[in-house]
Amino acid sequence: CSRPEKVCLCPFLPVHPLKVSTCLYIIQHPAEESRVLRTVPLLAACLPPDKCKILVGRRFSEDRYPELASVCRNPNTLILYPGAEATNLEEVAVLSSSPSVMIIIDGTWSQAKDIFYKNSLFRLPKQVQLKPTYSSQYVIRTQPTNTCLSTLECAAVALAIMEKNKSIQETILNPLQALCSFQLQHGAQIHHSKEHLLKNGLYDKPMPKNKRKLRRMELLVNNVKI
To answer: Could you tell me what percent of the chain has a pLDDT over 90?
Structure first.
């Protein structure tokens, strides 16, 4: 796990990499590489190297990334990104019988949005999303809403659905739960979502002057999907 021995997470990782037929391509924003508590290394430690490939960058052209371009043009490739055009993954998984490739963008929500909309390659795969019934267990990092998940959590849920094996989700979430437990024991605080803080009058930062950002906060309070 590459962490100090005192907070080593290796005992919480699977003894052997999980056997899955789905291959993940993690598109990671460069800013995530420097985050101490990022979750992608834990995800990679749970899977075989050929089933979890990480590409770091903001812009991905067909010339510079021919392998990724080929993956995006494959009819069995899915991209996990919520929106009006996205189909619930559960519906796609029922119809899927062949091994799939799934692309997941790793970054803050604004970073992920920038990567998705400014790279035409990512509009080629079928767009899928998870049902908003899962609550994040990544309680040491603030999320916009209660149902926003970390990259590791998205991957865990998605793989469990695609592989039709609920135990995959539990296995991948084990190191995340241990990570949060360690951090809380060493002084970290539980981070409620921005949605929770706003609804309960606990948001202690100045409200934004930017009208667009202020409107987004109003939508969070009123349970409007953004």
So the answer is: 45
CATH classification of the domain holding 140: 3.40.1280
Indicate the residue type of 116.
F
pLDDT digits (tens, 9 = 90+) for 130-176: 886 666 665 445 555 555 778 888 899 999 999 999 999 999 988 88
CA atoms of 88 and 47, how far apart (whole Å): 24
- Are 134 and 150 found together in one domain? yes
Domain span holding position 203:
192-222
- In sequence order, the 6+-apart residues with CB closer than 8 A to the CB of 183 are 37, 140
- For residue 28, the cross-strand partners are 56, 106
Q: Give, for 106, the enclosing helix (H) or strand (E).
A: strand 101-106
- CA dist list (Å): 1 to 9, 120, 159: 6, 34, 21
| 88 shares a domain with 103 | yes
Strand order in the sheet with 101-106: 52-56, 23-28, 101-106, 77-80, 126-129, 87-88
Report long-range pairs for 178-182 (Cβ below 8 Å, ≥24 apart): 178/9, 178/12, 179/9, 179/37, 179/39, 179/42, 179/140, 180/137, 180/138, 180/139, 180/140, 182/7, 182/9
Distance CA 122, CA 69 (A): 9
Confidence of residue 12 (pLDDT cuts 50, 70, 90): confident
Q: In total, how many domains does the chain have? A: 2
Rounded to whole angstroms, how far apart are CA atoms 97 and 71? 18
3-state secondary structure of 197: helix
